[in-house]
Each structure stands twice: as structure tokens, then as C-alpha cells.
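User: New here, any thoughts?
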Amino acid sequence: MTRTAQAAFLAAALATGAAGAQDILFFEQSDFNGRRFGASSSVSNMSDQGFNDHAQSIVVRSGTWQICTDSFFRGRCVTLNPGEYRNLSQIGLSSQISSAREMTGSGGGLGRRSRSTRTSISAAERSASTAR
């Protein structure tokens, strides 16, 4: 995919108010390339969509999303704020995502805690840490 086509796709993906737009997009390759899968609500098991352990980049259009390495929101979980995550290997999650859910309420807290490792990261924080 050319850089111009890629930029046009991302602009369309990030446009707000689009009918039927997904809140989070998962891409099979880094830099938003390859097959993609989008969601507007929780995905407890990405195997059901044929996308288990395939995501290498993500665009979070809206909301705060928790992505986890195991199905049903278990394993290592990372909370992502709106933004572009070009290479999930930078946060140690390339080809490891098995579930995702939008976080609601103040502070993104969960009503029930599981035995998973939780981390919160924004696109800006990720960019700043990789630039060092």
C-alpha cells in the first residue's frame, strides 16, 4: 500500500460521525497494513472473528480500550487511549491480542478484578518512550 493510499485510509478510518464506524481497528501487519478487523463493542474471543493473535497495529478511534493477551479479558491487559499504535511490538503485544473491551466509567475501572497484569498507555506516551 502506498503512503498516499495509507494516509487516505487512515484519514477515513479516523473521521468522526461515520455511520457504522468501528471504535477500534486491528491490523494484521504493522503500520496499519494487511487484513483488518474492527469492533464497536467488546470482543471476548478474537478466535470467533479469525483474528486471534494476529494484530500488529491498532487505531483507537474513540473510547478507552483494554486489550488482553488471553480470551475473556485475561492474561496481560493494556489500556489504550484514542490514537494510532503503529507497531504493537513496542509495547510487547505484537500478534498476541485475544480479546478487547471498551472501558467505561471514571478512571476506566473495572467492577471485578481478575488476575491479569494491567498497564495503561496513550499513543503520545508510547511515542515518547520509543523516541528515547
Q: What stands out?
A: The longest helix spans residues 3-14. Residues 13-19, 106-118, 128-132 have pLDDT under 50 and may be disordered.
